[in-house]
Amino acid sequence: MNRRYRKTIIAGNWKMNKTPSETKAFAEEFKALLPKTKWCDVVLCVPFVDLPAAVRGFKDSRVSVGAENLYFEKSGAFTGEVSADMLVDLDVKYVIIGHSERRQYFGETDVTVNKKVHTALEAGLSPIICVGESLEQREMGVTMELIALQVKSALAGVPAEQMRRCVIAYEPIWAIGTGKTATGDQAAEVCSFIRATIRSLYGARIARGVTIQYGGSMNPKNAAELLSHEDIDGGLIGGASLKPDQLMEIVHAANQD
Ligand code: PGA
Fold it and tell me: Looking at the domain 9-254, which fold is it?
């Protein structure tokens, strides 16, 4: 983390978990645990149907609510999809874009990711853009090339003034939901590389201000070590974000000096 130049953001990604009633109960429990002093940004990204309960539950608290996806068209005949305007109207602030599960199971590509990033930014949302390599790609030694490709294509055509609202999440696919966390050094190496890629596109000042998260089996035990690295500015947390006490422990790890 480097709080001097950029925000530290701890974000939960609930994936396809919890009903609206469970969301309400989570919000009550989580709010009761919130620290009074010292604070990193906290975002909870929840399934579409849970968004109203999450927004209501976290109203008047410092927790922001995010969606896990959106569609890039403004409106129209796209049965089952959700637009950026619908999210904004609900008071949603963030949206995860290009999570590896969406790339793997739902045909998301670098091209659709780029379209969705533009749609989110134009609507005033902050995209959390996910990038990451598979185990095979890491073993083939192409991690950095792949990450550069994913970052550059996600950001293609994004003007510098909108970059401030973009968050990048480095999520090695082999570490997601596997209990196999990247070591702090492995995660930091790629996060610094992502910052260098952004620097080559937008210059040093903007690159310094971008929040770059790590995601993949982050938990209360490994969070402090991961977050102690200069270029890791928070986490995108799946499994451990489903339990209020565990997510709060990670928030505390991010509140260290
Ligand atoms: P995990 O998921 O923390 O359960 O590994 C992270 C993510 O997929 O965002």
Answer: TIM Barrel (3.20.20)
